[in-house]
Design a protein that fits this description.
Layout: H1 3-10, E1 14-17, H2 19-31, E2 37-40, H3 56-59, E3 60-63, E4 69-72, E5 77-80, H4 85-94, E6 100-104, H5 108-113, H6 117-120, E7 123-128, H7 138-145, E8 154-158, H8 159-169, H9 175-193
Parallel strand pairs: 1-2, 1-6, 2-3, 6-7, 7-8
Antiparallel strand pairs: 4-5
Length: 217
């Protein structure tokens, strides 16, 4: 790894993992333009634009952690074919202690990262998916969460709790409302982790975020 690239990685404030997290990253960067951000995905997203219409390549650092992948379902999902363990370790070592990484736990790259002890030593904000989102990933997620109670620097937003509490508030709950609430909770958790001011116009969930965290008793 070149020194310049290593310095770029060490300066990042926030790194998204997967496409779902990348969409949140674009929103956060649009509101807090001073943040130094990067994204981990199987391919560069240079063709996309940020909130101001600027090319993503201008303000978002692409991190090619696992690029040996095959797109499936029209490119909306993908499968990781192989990983370079040395590359993964080199990137994880380059991230500074202040860097926050976040992603949905059923993302193929994040599933692979769960096996790395060095990954679990980072400041993480992960989202546990609903059952309908990632049935194939469930064994890997459950294995990881079994040991999460020892990691104070790892925050897991539990989508199961979100839908459970929302159902108590609204018996006619619709799936888009669940998705919106999960996004609002996730945004607020990230902003608080970065010690950023939270605008109610940007992140204003109905539920208290700390009641929706996964807790391994």
């Amino acid at each position: 790894m070149e020194n310049k690239y290593r310095e770029t990685l060490s300066a990042l404030d926030l790194v998204s993992i997967g496409f779902e997290a990348f969409n949140l990253l674009v929103q956060i960067k649009g509101m807090y333009s001073h943040l130094r951000v990067g994204y981990i995905y199987y391919a560069a997203l240079d063709c996309l634009s940020d909130w101001q219409g600027n090319p993503v390549v201008d303000n978002f650092t692409f991190i090619p952690l696992m690029t040996d992948a095959v797109p499936i379902y029209g490119g909306t999902s993908y499968r990781i074919c192989s990983i370079d363990i040395n590359t993964v370790h080199a990137h994880l070592e380059a991230f500074a202690d202040h860097t926050v990484l976040f992603g949905a736990m059923h993302d193929p790259i994040l599933i692979k990262l769960l096996d790395f002890y060095a990954f679990s030593q980072k400041r993480l904000i992960l989202r546990r998916p609903l059952k309908l989102e990632g049935s194939n990933a469930k064994p890997y997620i459950d294995k990881y969460l079994r040991f999460s109670k020892t990691w104070d620097h790892v925050t897991v937003l539990d989508s199961h709790k979100v839908i459970r509490y929302l159902n108590r508030l609204d018996s006619l709950l619709r799936l888009p409302e669940v998705g919106e609430e999960i996004e609002q909770l996730w945004l607020k958790l990230i902003l608080e982790q970065l010690d950023l001011p939270v605008s109610i116009d940007f992140a204003n969930p109905r539920l208290p975020q700390h009641s929706c965290l996964f807790i391994n008793l």
